[in-house]
Design brief:
Blueprint: H1 13-26, H2 29-35, E1 36-44, E2 52-55, H3 57-74, E3 77-85, E4 89-97, E5 107-117, E6 120-128, H4 131-141
Parallel strand pairs: 1-6
Antiparallel strand pairs: 1-2, 3-4, 4-5, 5-6
Helix pairs in contact: 1-2
Length: 142
């Protein structure tokens, strides 16, 4: 990491992602600001209700809140297929199958690309193997 004053200067990018989720679960916005840039962008591709670019920590956290609410009702089985990283990126590919009581489910593959700069998350972007199924799922459950 370029910023020698950063509190997580010896952390890997995966460590930074893990810290983000630790802080997110605790609703620790000071902690989140240690690992996420104030002007972070998060892109959720598609033509469904949740699609678009979220800008700033507050919008990104609100997006994660919405996704958490949907997924808690969806009882997903998540299989991490592969994680790759280099100095500025982490990509994680997953196979996700939901198990909703209402029968509205999805079985799909998704990759999330995390981008880092100066020891902080500066963006995230979801890529879906079957965008039409994702659109249908989120338009129905969101």
């Amino acid at each position: 990491m370029e910023n020698s004053n950063h509190p997580l200067k010896s952390a890997t990018n995966q460590d930074i992602i893990n810290k983000f989720f630790d802080y997110y679960i605790k609703r620790d916005f000071d902690g989140i600001r240690q690992v996420m840039a104030d002007n972070v962008t998060w892109t959720f591709l598609g033509r469904h209700k949740l699609a678009g670019v979220k800008t700033g920590i507050e919008q990104v956290v609100a997006f994660f809140d919405t996704m958490s609410e949907i997924m808690s009702k969806s009882k997903p089985v998540v299989k991490k297929l592969v994680i790759g990283s280099n100095e500025n990126y982490v990509i994680e590919c997953q196979h996700i199958v939901t198990n909703r009581e209402d029968g509205i489910n999805i079985d799909h593959h998704v990759c999330v690309l995390w981008t880092f700069e100066n020891g902080k998350i500066i963006s995230g972007r979801h890529f879906f193997a079957d965008p039409k199924s994702v659109d249908t799922f989120f338009d129905t459950v969101a």
